[in-house]
TrEMBL record, chains A, B:
<dbReference type="InterPro" id="IPR036390">
    <property type="entry name" value="WH_DNA-bd_sf"/>
</dbReference>
<keyword id="KW-0804">Transcription</keyword>
<keyword id="KW-0805">Transcription regulation</keyword>
<dbReference type="InterPro" id="IPR000835">
    <property type="entry name" value="HTH_MarR-typ"/>
</dbReference>
<dbReference type="InterPro" id="IPR036388">
    <property type="entry name" value="WH-like_DNA-bd_sf"/>
</dbReference>
<keyword id="KW-0238">DNA-binding</keyword>
<dbReference type="InterPro" id="IPR023187">
    <property type="entry name" value="Tscrpt_reg_MarR-type_CS"/>
</dbReference>
<dbReference type="Pfam" id="PF01047">
    <property type="entry name" value="MarR"/>
</dbReference>
<dbReference type="GO" id="GO:0003677">
    <property type="term" value="F:DNA binding"/>
</dbReference>
<dbReference type="GO" id="GO:0003700">
    <property type="term" value="F:DNA-binding transcription factor activity"/>
</dbReference>
<feature type="domain" description="HTH marR-type">
    <location>
        <begin position="34"/>
        <end position="167"/>
    </location>
</feature>
<dbReference type="InterPro" id="IPR039422">
    <property type="entry name" value="MarR/SlyA-like"/>
</dbReference>
<protein>
    <submittedName>
        <fullName>MarR family transcriptional regulator</fullName>
    </submittedName>
</protein>
<dbReference type="GO" id="GO:0006950">
    <property type="term" value="P:response to stress"/>
</dbReference>
Amino acid sequence: MAAEPEPRPLDFLSFVDHAISHTAGALPQADLDAMRLVLTLHRVTNALVYDLESSVHRPRGLSWPGFRVLFVLWHAGPAEAKRVAELSGMSRAAVSALVNTLERDGLVSRRQADHDRRAVRLSLTPAGNDAIIGTFEAHNRREQAWAGTLTDDERGRLVELLEKLMEGADLVAAKRRV
Amino acid sequence: MAAEPEPRPLDFLSFVDHAISHTAGALPQADLDAMRLVLTLHRVTNALVYDLESSVHRPRGLSWPGFRVLFVLWHAGPAEAKRVAELSGMSRAAVSALVNTLERDGLVSRRQADHDRRAVRLSLTPAGNDAIIGTFEAHNRREQAWAGTLTDDERGRLVELLEKLMEGADLVAAKRRV
DNA sequence: GCCGAATAATAAAACCTTTGATTAAATCTG
DNA sequence: CAGATTTAATCAAAGGTTTTATTATTCGGC
């Protein structure tokens, strides 16, 4: 049980440490390093996405998921919904729902695919193209501000470690979206 | 414009590289290292959270956000809604809505705070306590599988780099939830 | 060529999140 | 101490996600 009396009020910064030491007392068999890694990774990504979405995307009338779809269509060119889902890491149902909004806003257009009448071909409208380019420029400046707190070398090592973690996902047979 | 013809079908793994080289052609002034860092960070975290939620939390009747609230209450003890929001990194409105579900499911209870009649004190019910402990054990085993693809040293360095990135958020005046 | 199985997209229901009111209680200020 | 301001929580509207079920097509084996 090990109820820890907090000597000083816990804040967001110290909560990870607190949670880990509390867990050490309550569940001695827990893997604390793994716990710290996942907590920290989630916390950083969360803060980063919130900052980007609220300072870059929403002021321009886009959501973060909407930005991701435009981003994929910008780089991959016109593509089927299924492919956009794969490349963006969203489910097909999520893409379908999201494209309703993007189509209504005139940023993306739907068209029946030529070779398969079940499939839908998505493409950027001219307005969508302008939107993604303008938004990406602001997005990238913000990314630069975040990334700039690390040295070149640190950025490179961080990316390498993250890629290794991502490759490990296959080894542990992580569940992925259908 | 630099329309890149794809020599072979793009997949999720190669999309980051493709997006970066396409951006290099389309927007020469872009910071590609920052772009790669953010794309990779988001991609890994997304995959990790999806795997944890779909393999650990949903089968036990919890959502990922629900798990986070129980996790905070488990470690911090009974606390006001405002505090749970701060410690979990959610907005107060999100906590309020989420607790409706958790309360309905009998995992969390609401009570008016003693010192301030505006405030609500949240605490785990006995069922909530059982739920968080059982779920956390499975959650931690899954974390261990993911983290296990890195060496001890790599895990340590990854956490350090993530913490440095998180500290940088203050320097760049990142927006945070109210 | 035809019929059962697989596949693409969408719909439906349940949940969660965000921003911007609204309500009620506490606190500050003159 | 009264009035204005701030603060805690919740509500409301709009959007996004998930899983499961449906519909329309295409594919595969005989």
